[in-house]
Every structure is written in C-alpha cells, then in structure tokens.
Amino acid sequence: MTPRLGISCSIQLSYDRDGSNLHKNHIFLKTFEEICIRLKNNFSFLLGELLISWLRIFRFHSIIGDDFIKKPSWALNMSHVIAVINQKGGVGKTTTAVNLATALAAIGKNVLVLDLDPQGNATTGFGIQKGRGLQSSYGVLLGLVDPKEVAQETYVDGLSVISSTIDLSAAEIELFSQKDRDSKLKRSIAHLEYDYVLIDCPPGFGLININALNASNKIIIPLQCEFYALEGLAQLFNTIQSVRNTINKDLIVSGILLTMYDRRNSLSSVIANDVRSHFGNLVFNTVIPRNVKISEASSYGKPIILHDIKSMGAISYIELAREFLNRELA
Ligand SMILES: Nc1ncnc2c1ncn2[C@@H]1O[C@H](COP(=O)(O)OP(=O)(O)OP(=O)(O)O)[C@@H](O)[C@H]1O
Ligand SMILES: [Mg+2]
User: Fold this and answer.
1) How far apart are CA 91 and CA 224, in angstroms?
2) What ligand has the least distance to the C-alpha of 88?
3) Would you say residue 59 has pLDDT above 50?
4) Mean per-residue pLDDT for 31-58?
5) What share of the chain is helix, strand, coil (3-state, %, to 5)?
6) Is the pLDDT of residue 13 over 80?
7) Fewest C-beta atoms under 10 Å: which of 13, 138, 212, 325?
8) 277 near 249, Cβ under 8 Å?
9) CA of 118 to the centre of ligand 2 (A)
10) Is the CB of 203 inside a 6 Å radius of any atom of ligand 1?
11) What residue owns the CA closest to ligand 1's atom 20?
12) Per-residue confidence (pLDDT) for residue 33, from 0 to 100
C-alpha cells in the first residue's frame, strides 16, 4: 500500500515506506524553491512570489495533510516490533526470543526473529547456519539489503529468521561515523509486514541496541532469578527513558520476564518477590522455570516447543505467549 497525496497542479507525492521517495521529493522541492527565488530576483517579482507561497502551502499540506503523511512513511511501524533486551549476559534473552516467537507462530501469527547478536545464538537456536556478510542482520542493520530478501523460513510455519553473522561485531564501529546511526534499523525494517518482529538483542548498551530500541514498539526484559538480577536494571530503565525522551517516544515496556526460576532454591522466590514488589504489574505473571530441556533444545537447534512440548519449559513459553497477547489487547 503506497499512500498518495494528490494536489491540484497534478504533481503527486508518493511515499514509499522506505522513505526514499520522500527524500527525492524533498530534493525536488528544494530545487524548485531555488528556481522560484531566482525567478523572483531576475524576472518577475510577482510570479516568483506566487510560486513561493504556493510552494509553502504545498509543503504544509504534504506534512500535516493526512495521518499517513504526518510522519515520514518509514516511521510507520507496520509490524509490531519487540526488542528482547537486557544488557546483562546469559539471562535468557535468546531463549525467550526463540521460544516466544515459536509459540506465537504456533498460534497462527506471522513472526520474524531478527538476530541482532553477533554470537548468533537465535540463528543456531533454529538450526539455521549463521549468515554471511550482507546477507544477514548485519546488512539489514546498515540498511544495505532488503530484509525481505534475507529472511529465511524455518521449519516452523509462519516463522522466519534473519540470521546473524560475526560481521555484526564490526557494525558498531561502522555505524559510529554515520549521521543517522540511531535510526538505521528503524528505516530498514519499517516496511516489513509481520504480525510480530522479535529482536534478539546482544548484551551491553552499544549502538546495535540503541538501534533495536529505536526500531521497536515494545520491550521484553528477561530477568534471571539470581542474586544480581536487579543490578543494572536501573541503568537499563535509564537507557529506555533516554531513548523515549529523544528518538522513540512511543517505546513501552511490555513486561519483565522472570527466567530460570528454580523452585528448589529459596533465593529464586526471594528475587521474584523483590522484583514484583519493585515493578508490580510490569512483571509477567508467567515465570520461566529453570528446565534442563530448554538448554537441551537449543543444543539440538530447536525451540523447546518442538523438542518437548510436554516439558515445563515449553508449557511456560506457551503460557507467556498467551499472557503477552492478552497484554496486547488490554
Ligand atoms: N529456563 C531455562 N532453563 C535452563 N536453561 C536455560 C533457561 N533459559 C536459558 N537457559 C540457558 O542459559 C544459557 C543462557 O541463555 P540465553 O542464551 O537465552 O541468554 P542470553 O541472555 O541470550 O545470553 P547472551 O547475553 O549471551 O546473549 C543458555 O545456555 C540457555 O540454554
Ligand atoms: Mg543471547
């Protein structure tokens, strides 16, 4: 769907979702304005003045005339994009991205997992070979390939993956010198039409994660039920807040997910209670238990639901998908 704005003088602006036409049209308008100014200076004051005021009205309408056109079209998120993020390593981000995505696909949603971690664990978690060069999330992040072309179908119906590659570890440096370094990914995936895009984020707070936060509508924060769980969470919320204040004001937290909960270990319940008393409803009711089948599944390159649907791990991730969708409707 390409929304079009027709104007009386038979020029049409077409807004492709990647914003390239918008950019071209602005260049065209700028050049046109320069011609008008020259015309005004050199030939006819009145004709020049008329054209300039027409141009201002035209610009005004092209910016605010229609809901679709209020924002540059690349800013319209067609898919629901969810970043699975926590700067701490090993807390269950990848496991959550892989298994929540599978559970959502299993109930009929069209889902993409975007593996943004150079480690590529989400990629191998689906039994897919890591990408090479630009044909991966590296190319997508830098805006050098069409994500539709590099998305690979998995053996789960309705679930695709954009694989990661070790090249991603250089992306931070490559992005650094670029003017639009925070919004590269947002532009790149804006035209995707999945029900959900789940981004498996790397640990840390680099430019890859800033891009992920900017490109997302929502965040899921996996939190491992262990002693240092809360440490660093304040820093994560500060980062989220500064992203909201600057580049993505609509970003919200879908929920904090307690992972690797160990019933036999009283520390797990102490941590869980502590997190709930701090964050209340923000914490998902669903808790992911520590379950050996989960780590077993990833070593087979399979989501837990396909590895052992009766396991506690599979049941919890299906329950998480249900709760997540309920939250979406609330
Ligand atoms: N509920 C669970 N029960 C048992 N093992 C789990 C569970 N969740 C995750 N694991 C295992 O813990 C390890 C870390 O999990 P995972 O890779 O999902 O964390 P991560 O946050 O993505 O890590 P990183 O920050 O390195 O990307 C993996 O070996 C995974 O198989
Ligand atoms: Mg991971």
Assistant:
1) 5
2) 1
3) no
4) 56
5) 50, 15, 35
6) no
7) 325
8) no
9) 9
10) yes
11) 90
12) 55
